[in-house]
Write a structure and sequence with these properties.
Number of domains: 1
Oligomer: single chain
Family: Belongs to the NDK family.
EC number: 2.7.4.6
Number of strands: 2
CATH class: Alpha Beta
Shape: globular
Structural class: mainly alpha
Protein name: Nucleoside diphosphate kinase
Helix content: 40-55%
Keywords: ATP-binding, Cytoplasm, Kinase, Magnesium, Metal-binding, Nucleotide metabolism, Nucleotide-binding, Transferase
Radius of gyration: 14 Å
CATH superfamily: Nucleoside diphosphate kinase-like domain
Bound molecules: adenosine-5'-triphosphate, magnesium ion
Strand order of the largest sheet: 1-2
InterPro entries: NDK-like_dom (IPR034907), NDK-like_dom_sf (IPR036850), Nucleoside_diP_kinase (IPR001564), Nucleoside_diP_kinase_AS (IPR023005)
CATH architecture: 2-Layer Sandwich
């Protein structure tokens, strides 16, 4: 998912090009916006953490662009391409990553990636329903 900071800064097309250049294909994508209830549900694993309220405020601050990416080892590959959570750390340890290039800090970090097949299934269903076809 391309997060509100990166949609706002008009980086969607550039990030899509990077994704294609890395050999992923797009199964589904759309423009949408999270309301407070859906953002809380999406990030339920972080409910109760100190940064949760500001994460919800950030994630509901503007449109997002969820995408279903397909490719060999897609989960690991996409998370490597995103770089570490903290964009400032990414600029040091993963300078070629998307967060290094487009992220601001450890919250406004431009992109989200599912971290396991189970969360990918849940998050695909969250945004696109149970139909996994293109
Ligand atoms: P994502 O789940 O969005 O792909 P991630 O797996 O790298 O990112 P998580 O630890 O799952 O990171 O945190 C989810 C999101 O919450 C982060 O991407 C970031 O936007 C925000 N976040 C995480 N840690 C912090 C923090 N310490 N302060 C502020 N925001 C944070
Ligand atoms: Mg995560």
């Amino acid at each position: 998912m391309i997060k509100p900071d990166c949609v706002r800064n008009k980086h969607v097309d550039e990030i899509r090009k990077i994704i294609l250049a890395q050999g992923f294909s797009f199964v589904k994508e759309k423009d949408t916006k999270l309301d407070v209830a859906s953002a809380k549900s999406f990030y339920q694993e972080h409910n109760g953490k100190e940064f949760f309220p500001s994460l919800i405020e950030f994630m509901t601050s503007g449109p997002v662009h969820p995408m279903v990416l397909e490719g060999e080892g897609a989960i690991k590959k996409w998370r490597a391409l995103m770089g570490p959570t903290d964009s400032n750390k990414a600029r040091i340890t993963a300078p070629d990553s998307i967060r290094a290039a487009f992220g601001t800090d450890n919250q406004m970090n431009c992109v989200h990636g599912s971290d396991a097949p189970e969360s990918a299934a849940r998050e695909i269903s969250f945004f696109f329903g149970d139909d996994k076809q293109a």
